[in-house]
Structure formats: C-alpha cells, structure tokens
Amino acid sequence: MRRSILWFCIVVTVLIVLLLWQNEKKPTEASPPVSIETNTALSKSTITSSPASASVGTNTPAAQAASNATAPLQNKGEQMREGLSLLNDSSIVFYGKLEDQFGNAVGDTPVNFSVRVYNGFRSSVDRGQITSDANGLFTISGYKGESIDVVPVKTGYVPISMSGSGIYSHMWPEEKRAHPDPNNPVVIKMWKLQGAEPLVDISKEYRLPFASTPIYFDLVAGKVVPDGGDLEVIITRAPGSLSKKVPADWSIQLKPVHGGIMESDYHAAQLTFEAPMDGYQDNYLVQMNHDDPAWYDNIHEVFFLKSRGGQVYAKFNLDFMINLEADGLMDFQFKGVANTNSSRNWEATAPQ
Q1: Do residues 211 and 260 share a domain?
Q2: CA dihedral defined by 283, 288, 292, 293, rounded to 10 degrees?
Q3: pLDDT at residue 173 in the model
Q4: What is the pLDDT of residues 40-74, one digit of tens each?
C-alpha cells in the first residue's frame, strides 16, 4: 500500500508539472470564439494526431497517462482522474486452487474476495463470493481495479496461505504484478483441523541484572532456574555505558536445552498450527559490533523452539534489550505458547 501511494504521488506530480508547462506555452492573445462542441472536437483531434504523441511508441497505461498530460483539456482534475484510471482500472482475472496441508484439493468451498477500486472517480471495494469446484479450482473475473484479496471459508479449515492476493495496478513494476495463468493457478493452502490439544501460555517478562554466566529459563514454569529448563541464554557486553550515541560491543546467544531453535516471523508463526518436524539449529546468535552502522540495543524476533528432548514444542516472540548502564537491568519479554505433551500440535491457536 505504501508503494502504491508513492507511485500515485509521483504520477500526480508529473501530471501537474506538465499541465503548468502547457499553460505557459499558450498564446496571450484572445482565441477566436468557438463553441464548446467545436473546442472539444479540436482537443480530441489534437490528442490523436499530434506528432509528439505518435512518437512515444508505446501503448502502456503509464505512457498513455503521461501523454494525456500534454493534451489541452479544460478540466485539469478530470485529466488527472483519467490518468489514474488508466493506471488502476485493470482487468481482474484470478485463477486459484485450494489445497489442505497434505496437498489434497478442498472442493465445494465458498471463496470470498474483495477488489480494491481506486481510479480517480471511485475509491471503494467491490466484494463477491464464488465456490471452488470438486478439484478446488475457481476463477474470478469480470472486475476492474488495482488489487484483489481472496479468503476461502470452510468449517473445519483455516486459511494459512499468504498468497491469496494479487496486484494488477500499473503503478507497480511488472515483476510485482499478477500474471494470471489458467494452467498455473495460485495455490491457497488451508489447514484441516485435526483436533486441538491443551497448550501452556509461556508469556512472561523478566528484568535481570547483567551476568557473565549463562541464564536458564524454564519457559513452562515461568521462572529462571540454576540450570536445565528450556532455554539457555548467554549475554556478553563491553564494560561501561552503551547507547546509540556511544555504541559498544554486545551479543546474545540462545541455546535450546536438549533441542533446537528456528527463527520465524510474526505472520508465519500466526499461521503455523503444527511445529516443524526438522530444520532446527543448535543456537541463535546476535552479535552487535560498535562500528556497525546498523547498531541497536535490542532485538525483536520470533522463534520455534524444541526442548527437553522433544517433550516441549513452543512458538514465541522475544523482545530483548541490553542493559545500557553497567549496573542496569536487562529486559526479556516472552510471548507465546508451548505444547508440553511431546506433540507438535498448536491447533489451539487457530480460530476455531
């Protein structure tokens, strides 16, 4: 969305500059009286037969919008709206396919969709619904707009794919726009619920003094322990004060206890209802050097964690801030859940 606004501002700026330049080129003497109909016809003739317009050599909507800026239209606002319409009034065609986490087709499923319209004449959303066939396939067409969002809805399933959308606006680069292909539909994944299991809330905040020895967190019990638990954390820092104005070396290392750790992101974690089977690492390290231009005093990360030999599977956000003063406190904030039954099931976090 921010990218769309940026491109819109650029296009509008170019149109205004060209319009002002065109006005400066007009002769100062009075024009011979002509009727409105004649002037309109003359304007259209000028647009279609101008050698300058013919020399552009392209029919892209962006080029047409820029070309229209040189046409002596009476209504500048109307001209800008028409230019925006050329860029954003794209034909919407979306070929989709619904699959569950096992790759099976999800047929006979209602698919809600919304088409974003922003063309200078109208700013709104056109909504509709279609149903997938027995093979999970569906097609959305017959609309015009800048983008589309697709959300299937079926009892016992939860959408987990982030591919249910498409951008059609010519304000975006070619590689960012949708390229619908009936032989290559967009696959939208849906999680087929198997049955939720009880989870433990491991959300807690800790404020601890700096220690040169490892810190062990028992995430399930919500406390710091002498050893064991679920997560070993090792902190290092240079002596004295540190800040963004006076950066200094520091690091944080996360080491799962008898397990593994995997970095994720917020959206993926929200849509993940089963812990990964593999792909875990034995540690996660952030090393900040005083001469790093991107130096910062905290981390905000999302993790999948396996601990206690596979008895615990957790997913959590970690916010950490190093102590800025040598005698200050470090901040740890965990927010997440854990399955403590040696099961990878996180379905209790899914909308039921």
Answers
A1: yes
A2: 100
A3: 92
A4: 332 333 333 333 333 344 455 555 655 555 555 55
- Residue 262's H or E segment, with its range, is strand 260-264
Same-domain pairing of 323 and 209: yes
Contact present, 79 and 73 (Cβ < 8 Å): yes
| Beta-carbon contacts of residue 95 (< 8 Å; ≥ 6 apart) | 137, 138, 139, 180, 181, 182, 184, 185, 186
- Domain assignment present for 20: no
In a shared domain, residues 175 and 241: no
SS3 track for 42-103: HHHHHHHHCHHHHCCCCCCHHHHHHHHCCCCCCCHHHHHHHHHHHHHCEEEEEEEEEEECCC
- Rounded Cα distance between 316 and 233, Å, is 15
What domain count does the chain have?
A: 2
Whether 59 maps to a domain, the answer reads no
* Shared domain check, 223 and 183: no
Give the domain-ending residue among 192, 221, 239: 192
DSSP state of 185: P
The pair of structure tokens assigned to 124 is 């709104």
Q: What is the DSSP letter of 184?
A: S
- What is the Cα–Cα distance from 50 to 54, expressed in whole angstroms? 6
Check residue 79 and give its pLDDT. 75
What is the distance between the alpha carbons of residues 36 and 218, in angstroms, rounded to a whole number? 81
Residue 199 to residue 153: CA distance in whole angstroms: 25
Do 296 and 314 reside in the same domain of the chain?
yes
Threshold 0.90, pTM exceeds: no
What's the confidence (pLDDT) of residue 292? 95
For range 123-142, the mean pLDDT: 97
CA distances to 16, 45, 68 from 50, rounded to whole Å, are 20, 8, 11
> How far lies 37's CA from each of 27, 32, 41, 42, 80, in Å?
21, 14, 6, 9, 22
Q: Which residue has the tokens 């997913």?
A: 315
User: What's residue 38's pLDDT?
Assistant: 33
Q: Give per-residue burial for 289-300: e unless 16+ CB within 10 Å, then b.
A: eeeeeebebeee
